[in-house]
Specification:
By secondary structure, the chain is of the alpha+beta class. The chain folds into three domains: 120 residues, DnaJ domain (Helix Hairpins); 134 residues, Heat shock protein DnaJ, cysteine-rich domain (Chaperone, DNAj Protein, Chain A, Ribbon); 81 residues, HSP40/DNAj peptide-binding domain, CATH 2.60.260. Helices cover 25% and strands 24% of the residues. It contains ten helices and 15 strands. Strands 10-11-15-14 form a four-stranded mixed beta sheet. The radius of gyration is 39 Å and the shape is elongated. The N and C termini lie far apart (94 Å). Homodimer.
């Protein structure tokens, strides 16, 4: 189907619906017609086969809201005197009937010169280019460089390294820019030239009936450039596999399983295109003393029963030295004492650090000498005499 025939074709009529039909109405109409006209249901019936193709073509446009909108706008442009009576192309003037004069050259409006040409600037070709292949003219678009692929690797840090931040070297082998041609793919002293077939776009367009298709240019293999004298070290790709050492700064407060992104440190792009990114997955080993809850550090502080009863001050470790923690008299076993600002450094603009959460836990002696045992028995008697009952009110007691 030519572009002229496409504009004059009424897809709504093909499906038997009005121009204001909803998407559900269009879908139902197409399903019924497709079922009735399908070649399997009409073997040897060429008319039904042609009708089936027309119905399918109409549905392909009207079932897509974006294509339908552009189809409607295009038809309105050529109907009802659109354009204010101005002459288009080779003398075509839209009239009330919306027809075409014999000398109308639709190629002037579409701005195309053959099946692989570029669309003109701002013409109807831009509109129908979006409808047919969503991309406009292939020769007019700028070539998109082939960005390199992203690369992933892993590293394991100690708990305190992860909390405080650390710089680690990562040794890895991956595709990198060729050091001889600096990634261009061309022999030193020469340069790639723009592909004359696709004008550097890397894609060419071709028309098939009413629809246009874009495909990679065969001459340049989609790169948009041609290398006449390729670099011998990388065979014109601009890429070499090499082993390199990357210094990675792990920020303070990184958590187990978190990924660190290093822009541009991934696989090299083809022929000087931008490199991909490197993603480093951080694994954090457990610590013998500290735990972590978000930005808060946690630790369990062993204390004696007498320290809880009488109160004391205990020196505890932090990420940057030790700090004294006061245990008030009468502190219950399992109580959490908070030391503000001595936790994990917070990430982001807020800054600061979390807290240190100290859980006190009674350490029970496994063996006592006779003096300690006698003293403990006297205390037990005195405790009862004072009226203290640890299970008062417990379990209905």
């Amino acid at each position: 189907m030519s572009q002229r025939e496409w504009i004059e074709k009424d897809f709504y009529k093909e499906l038997g619906v009005s121009s204001g039909a909803s998407q559900d109405e269009i879908k139902k109409a197409y399903r019924k017609l497709a079922r009735d006209l399908h070649p399997d249901s009409n073997p040897g019936d060429t008319k039904a086969e042609e009708r089936f193709k027309s119905v399918s073509e109409a549905n392909a446009v009207l079932s897509d809201p974006a294509k339908r909108k552009e189809y409607d706008e295009t038809r309105r442009m050529f109907a009802g005197g659109g354009g204010g009576g101005r002459a288009y192309g080779g003398g075509f003037t839209p009239g009330a009937g919306g027809g075409f004069s014999q000398d109308f050259n639709i190629g002037d409006i579409f701005g195309q010169a053959g099946g692989t040409g570029a669309a003109g600037d701002g013409g109807l070709g831009d509109l129908l280019g979006g409808l047919f292949n969503r991309g406009g003219g292939g020769g007019r678009a700028a070539a998109r460089p082939r960005r390199g692929s992203d690369v992933e690797t892993e590293t394991t840090l100690g708990f305190r390294e992860a909390a405080q931040g650390v710089t680690v070297p990562l040794r890895m082998t991956s595709p990198s820019p060729c050091t001889t041609c600096h990634g261009s793919g061309a022999k030193p002293g020469t340069s790639p030239r723009v592909c004359p077939h696709c004008n550097g776009a890397g894609v060419v367009s071709r028309n098939q009936g009413a629809f246009g298709f874009s495909e990679p240019c065969d001459d340049c293999r989609g790169t948009g450039s041609i290398i006449d004298d390729p670099c011998t070290d990388c065979s014109g790709t601009g890429i070499q596999n090499r082993t390199r050492t990357i210094t990675v700064r792990i920020p303070p407060g990184v958590s187990d399983g978190q990924k660190i992104r290093l822009a541009g440190q991934g696989e090299a792009g083809l022929r000087g295109a931008p490199s991909g990114d490197l993603y480093v997955t951080v694994h954090v080993s457990q610590d013998k003393v500290f735990g972590r809850q978000g930005d808060d550090l946690t630790l369990v502080l062993p204390v004696s029963y007498s320290e809880l009863v009488l109160g004391t001050t205990v020196s505890v470790p932090t990420l940057d030295g030790r700090v004294g923690v006061k245990v008030p008299a009468g502190t219950a076993d399992g109580r959490i004492l908070r030391v503000r600002g001595r936790g994990v450094p917070k990430r982001g603009a807020a800054g600061g650090a979390g807290d240190l959460l100290v859980t006190v836990k009674v350490a029970v002696p496994q063996a006592l000498d006779s003096d300690a045992t006698d003293a403990l028995k006297r205390y037990q008697e005195a405790e009862k005499a004072s009226g203290f009952e640890p299970r008062a009110g417990w379990a209905g007691a």
